[in-house]
Description:
The structure holds three protein chains of three kinds. By secondary structure, chain A is mainly alpha-helical. Chain A has twelve helices and no strands. In chain A, helix 5 crosses helix 7, helix 10 runs antiparallel to helix 12 (262-290) and helix 11 packs antiparallel against helix 12 (262-290). The longest helix of chain A has 37 residues, at 85-121. Chain A is elongated, with a radius of gyration of 23 Å. The N and C termini of chain C lie far apart (45 Å).
Amino acid sequence: MTDPTALPLDLSAADSQGPLDDRKFWQRLPVKVWVGLAIVLIYVLIAVFAPLLAPHDPLAIDPANKLASPTGDHLLGTDELGRDVLSRLLYAARVDLPIGFLGALMPMVLGTILGALAGFYGRWTDTLVMRTADVVQAFPAYILVIVLVFALGQGAKSILVAFTVLAWVVYARIIRGEVLRIRDLDYVHAARVAGLGRLRILRAHVLPNAINQTLIYLPSDIVFATLALAAFSFLGLGIPPPTPEWGAMIAEGQPFIRTNWWLATIPGLIIVVFGLGVSLIGEGFEERLHG
Amino acid sequence: MTAFLEIKDLTVTFRVGSAIAARLKGDPVPDLVAVDDITFTVDRGESLGIVGESGCGKSTLARAITGLVPVTSGSISLDGGPLGKRRSKATRRRVQMVFQDPSSSLNPSMTVERTLAELLRVHKIVPRDRIDARCAELMDLVELPKSLLKARPRSLSGGQRQRVGIARALALEPDVLIADEAVAALDVSVQAPVLNLLNQLREELGLTVMFISHDLAVVRYVSDRVIVMYLGNAVEDRSTVDLFESPRHPYTRALMAAAPKFGVKKAPGESAIKGEPPSALDLPSGCRFRPRCPLAEEICEQVEPDLSGASETERTACHFPWEG
Amino acid sequence: MSDRILEVEDLSVTLERGGKEITPVQNVSVSLGRGEALGIAGESGCGKSLTLKSIIGLLPPGAIVGGDLRFALDREEPISYESADVHGHGIAIIFQEPMTALNPTMRVGDLIAEGPKIHHGLDRREARERAIELMRLVGIPSPEKRARMWPHQLSGGLRQRVMIAAALSTEPKLLLCDEPTTALDVSIQDQILGLLQELRTRLDMSIIFVSHDLAVIGELCDRIAIMYAGQVVEKGPVDEVFADPKHPYTEALMHSVPSFQQTTEKLEGIEGAPPDPGSFPDGCRFAPRCRYVRDDCATASYALVQIGERRETGCIHPELLEGIGS
Lengths: 291, 324, 326
């Protein structure tokens, strides 16, 4: 221990050696994780139970009652086609949440596999994976998404494919770096000396210890995927109408911002609060792992 | 009696820096010779100490024998069979290693039990239904409470982790156990019990042990025979008793003079060896210890001394060995 | 003029860790004479390093220091720290791993010249000359050439010498050494110990040397303080303590290390592991690992008792010790 500003040697050594804290992992999580989890859980429940919670059919058009202000029947009013805004907001969770989660999880899985192979096997595997990553990163991201969406047709699937093709790179880089570090730790050497197979070493000894870093990154990527979906829908590249989606609702509500301000504002707030909840989880885990 | 573990003309080199850069500049491709043409044998059940300072190649030697580092030339054989580049699972099992740093030598995400059970299962050491029982036996063997089987490394003390490391090595029932600085990272009061355990296991299980250390005292405590290494060479190979009673190589003598001793006060400005070891990339001609040696003469500059002597285990690599 | 340069009385350090308050250093009292070398020995978690860091004010943020620290500059009685200008003046520290203690983006010569520039108002050229002079003093060969090198271009031994030179640049009266030879090879450790011994006599400097290695302390120091679990358990002149320890922990430590000078039959070692600062036992903290433990040890309160002329022990049953020869 030589950096005078860091924790003194005696303590850090003891910290890594002594049986200090026998509380379970979840008991040691900071409060903000619980707050974040609560927020996300509410969103998930809304998505699951949207059909029960929604007072109206989110797709039912009522031209006679368009752009109505909030009333007892329509708690958040209606949009320009007379659809119930509250119902649409609730149903939109069923589109936005899966795409947000999958849009981060799919790249994570792909990036983890490719990054691990690159780091662990090195040589041409490494060259192939990392040069491909360079190529993907060299492309302007939004152009790539637009091209993919045009090629595959508008819809949730295309959006997910586009996210996966784009976002795996970050995960691959994180995992590769970790694998390179862990590959040279003594417990991996011990596994090699013990004659364990390479795949087993990668799966049981390297990956489980490499994955922490990506778990810290995952929440911010979920936020990113949710926001990106909203942005694409806003631009008309996302989920095609009439399926309710928060980003699209912002776009639809935008012309009426002076008269019916809630049309665009409330879906915006909903996205922000969701992002906040997920970020809190990520931050809390990071504190836990690095603190 | 034929040798059990035989190391013959073993050389390990590492590529350092960029081969392309060197070729572009017209320089020879730089190779670092970590272990340079070493030959020795170890008898079954013997405990051999390898001692030397950092950069002498002792750890590389250990890693070459376990197969962690590829051998550049020369051969390693165990019980007559070669230990080559490609080793079967069954061969690998026979040479196991205990590592230096207890904080990185155990997989942090596996419990002690999973660490041990994985090896027993993969190598089919015991039938499946005996795995739990065997894990418990291994804990007994290294004198740890069985309750620690459920523990993860982070909740173990340094000494306990090192015992788990030993249990992991013993799980495969090896013939040869290589301990690379196995107590160097432990607290002083915890070192002795681990050393005692290694001594005891060696007797009980008839293990052949190679103990790698920078610490003369530790090597003296656990070994029957000691090889002293300097810059990739073995400079002295003697029985422990002889070596410590009458060291012959000037480097061995200097190492002993430099080791801190109780009841001796350091004189101002005094030191046993002057200067620092030369770079392994730019070795001196002749004897490698020559630039720091108080006895060096002209021949030391011209001729590199061979490691030779009255017998296989009575060798010194010096033109002017001390005769005590 | 007092012969004492440093007096530490009842030093305690309290830190917060994981929401709990811990006191890794408790009631430590040591004093140091001019030109004297004091060794502080102990294992990880015993508080030796923190004690050293409290003396120079390098504790982590949030640490609460209790007790009294007094330091004597020239020709004065030791005065309390608050009024003495000790930072960067009079006290310097060197660490175990010079690679992380030396700024990697500064050339070696500039690193050493920093002190003279700031503290003595030397200009660039004077400071550089002073740096080269200091490098020569600590035995760095061809200092003019090495002054232009970066820390990573030097060997571990030379880096340690650079760190010593940088520490000496402020002309300290007291040099604190935090395991400065632990990361070094035996032959280089030997050289650094010789250098410290030489500097101490030449510059009339006091040294506090923290190490886990009793033999190293024995080679350099006049007096030793053995620490265990945050407390000093034994104090006295090095040779007397080693020849006839008055605390079971000291005795056990001596039995724990093999000797290369003679064959050791069987080492004893100490059962268990040193306790963590978060869970120091009640009563005598060494009692759970002590081979001489008696019933009243579990309730004994900590106090150092004078034994003989110059020695103190924290053990309440020093008469039970069988001695080194047993």
